[in-house]
C-alpha cells in the first residue's frame, strides 16, 4: 500500500482523498493509505509523518512547507499546483535532486493528447496564426491556467524547432494594438460559473481554420491521472519528471 500525504482541503484535495481511499487493486486490497491531509495550517505538514508520496493540489503559498517536507522525508512529490513564479519553479526542479518530483498543470490523459495534437498541428500548418483560450470556474485564482501555459510552451517550442523564428505570447488585447504580429501567440482567459476546464487551440490560415478543444466535465479526470502518476512515481530515482514521462514513458 502506498502511503500519501495530501496538501489541500478544497474541492480537489477532498476528491483526491475520497478517490484514494476508495481505490482497490486487482486483489481487492487498498492501493493508498492517507497518512495526513493538511490545508493552510502548514505547521501540521511540518509534523506530518513520513509517507511514500505527497500530493499537492493547493496554492503556490504552500511551496516552502512542501519543499521542507520532501527534504525531511524523501517522499515523492506529485504537484498539480499552478500559479508558481519562475523562482518557485526553480525550487521545484531543485527538489528533484533529493526525491522524485512530478509537476504538471494538468493531469488529464485527454489534455496530454491535446498537447501532442497541438505540436503536430504547428508542424503541419506553418504560417497559421495560433490563439489559445482557456475557461475555468469563477473561483480559480490564477490566469492563464497551467494547462494553457503548457500548450503555449508546446507552440513556441515547435515553431522554434521548425526554424520559423522566435514566437512570443500576448496575454489578451486591448485598445489600438495594431495588426497582429505573425509571431505572436494570443492567450486568453475566461472565468465564470462552475466550469471544470475548457482549453482550445485555434489555428487560423487563409480562408480556413482548425480548432482543437479539450473539455473537462468534472475534476475527477485530474484526480484519476494524479493518483495513477503517484503510483508510478513512487520508487523512481530522484529527478524532475513530466506527466508524459511517468504515464507513457
Summarize the structure.
The protein has 2 domains: 2-103 and 220-248, NAD(P)-binding Rossmann-like Domain (Rossmann fold, 3-Layer(aba) Sandwich), CATH 3.40.50; 109-216, Dihydrodipicolinate Reductase, domain 2, CATH 3.30.360.10. Helices cover 37% and strands 27% of the residues. The protein has 8 helices and 11 strands.
How do the strands and helices of this protein lay out in sequence?
Blueprint: E1 2-7, H1 11-22, E2 32-38, H2 42-47, E3 53-56, H3 63-73, E4 76-79, H4 86-95, E5 100-103, H5 109-124, E6 129-136, H6 146-161, E7 168-171, E8 184-191, E9 197-205, E10 208-216, H7 220-233, E11 239-241, H8 243-248
Parallel strand pairs: 1-2, 1-3, 3-4, 4-5, 5-11, 6-8, 7-8
Antiparallel strand pairs: 6-9, 9-10
Task: Describe the fold and architecture.
The protein is α/β, with parallel strands linked by helices. The chain has two domains: 2-103 and 220-248, 3-Layer(aba) Sandwich (Rossmann fold), CATH 3.40.50; 109-216, 2-Layer Sandwich (Dihydrodipicolinate Reductase, domain 2). The protein is 37% helix and 27% strand. The chain has eight helices and eleven strands. Helix 1 (11-22) links the parallel strand 1 (2-7) and strand 2. Helix 1 (11-22) crosses helix 7 and helix 5 (109-124) runs parallel beside helix 6 (146-161). It starts with a strand and ends with a helix.
| Largest sheet: spatial strand order | 2-1-3-4-5-11
CATH class of the largest domain: Alpha Beta
The rough form would be described as: elongated
Q: Please give the count of helices.
A: 8
What sequence of helices (H) and strands (E) makes up the elements?
EHEHEHEHEHEHEEEEHEH
For the sheet with most strands, the description reads: 6 strands, parallel
CATH fold type of the largest domain: Rossmann fold
Please state the structural category.
alpha/beta
| Low-confidence runs of at least 5 consecutive residues | none
